[in-house]
Amino acid sequence: MNSKTWTVVQFLDDLTVEAIPSTWIQGNECHWPSFSMEKLHNAIRKSEPLNTCWPTHKIKIFRNATYGDYLKARNKARIAENTSDINTEPEDVEVKRKRIQKILSSSEESIDDTILPPPPSISKYKAKKEDFNLDFNI
Q: Please, are residues 30 and 24 in contact by the beta-carbon 8 Å criterion?
């Protein structure tokens, strides 16, 4: 019987999601080796034994996220990158619509920036008959 299991976790310091060997987990922390990417992936895939000298990182363990098959755990980790419920199938994941941002043209933008001149003031000066040339000679 194969006793190797992998658990999908989220690293709280950088919010990345990964399927890791369950033996690397101690409480809400995970021992994480300082390997090159290729060696790290091999260590995860082969469920390399825990080395307590590895640095620890705070993690969040997803609910019902322990699997006896590495590939299944890895697929669930990919789902968890986009949704908080890893127990949904990919086609069940609802895609959120993106809002289309309204783009204003330069003329619309300038309307807000344009300041209208003040209305003409009404003079308090009273016009006299002499001020108007009212010549009605026909």
A: yes
pLDDT in tens, 81-123: 877 655 555 554 455 666 666 676 665 555 555 677 777 777 7
Distance from C-alpha of 15 to C-alpha of 83, rounded to nearest angstrom: 13
Structural domain boundaries in the chain: 6-87
pTM to 2 decimal places: 0.59
Greatest Cα-to-Cα distance within the chain, rounded to the nearest angstrom: 123
The Cα–Cα gap between 119 and 138 comes to 38
CA trace torsion 68, 73, 74, 78 (10° rounding): 170
Residue given tokens 């043209």 in the structure block: 105
| Positions of E strands within 12-123 | 17-21, 25-26, 29-31, 56-67
